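Worked example

This section walks through a single chain of length 251. The input is the sequence exactly as stored; nothing has been trimmed or padded.
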Amino acid sequence: MGTTQLETVPEPKYWHLRTVLSEALESEFSVGEILPNERDLAARFGVARATLRQALEQLELEGRLQRRRGVGTTVAPPRVGVAVGTEQHAWPGAAEDGWQATDCALAAPPAAVALVTGTDEPVHTVRRSRVTHGQPVAAELLYVPQPSVPDLSAIDAPSGAARARAVLRELQRLELEGRESAGQRGAARADDARELDRLPGAPVLVVATPIRAPGATPAHTGATYRADTCRLTFGDTGGVEIHQDPERRAS
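Given that input, the structure is written out below as tokens.
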């Protein structure tokens, strides 16, 4: 492997390096292959290791690389195409949407959720996960105030996945007015990182969705998507999709 010096360019050096590295990934490496260590890469391209790390982090965010403790930096497989959003007028769990309910517990809601739902009392907190082609792509917390599902107390399912499914069924009894989603970049918390098979602090996309019924917000969802596997598009119908990147191909 020869030595390549970066030319003087007006753009930030790490961004130019990201472009050069991207071209190298296409021509020199195959999916799953481990890249040389940072010292060797920095020497090859004639840059400081801090500049190299910035470029590697950018490529990880774009889904081109995967960085794992104890393994190193590997070339990522093509992004998985997954339908993320449900219909504008459908409750979570109302149809087969790729999500799996895994747990449910009564817990105090985060301050932002309490502000939207209008209660700081303990709420039903449903955890759902999503796996596509054997790869974990998203984790979700659905917050449901107790008054939204008053008949749940009669259901003999105190916790776990059965309780989660019961909450989802009870929600479907309500009249649904609509839902609006908003997304932003974030960093994986410890619990989400474990579920998504990432390191804590890894880049993620966080999509918050208040769900409205006449005169109330009976539920609120917060879904965390692996930023290295998806690209979100918000359409006129309120749907959200993860699209496969047409420029990525497995070698």
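What to look for: DSSP finds six helices and twelve strands in the chain.
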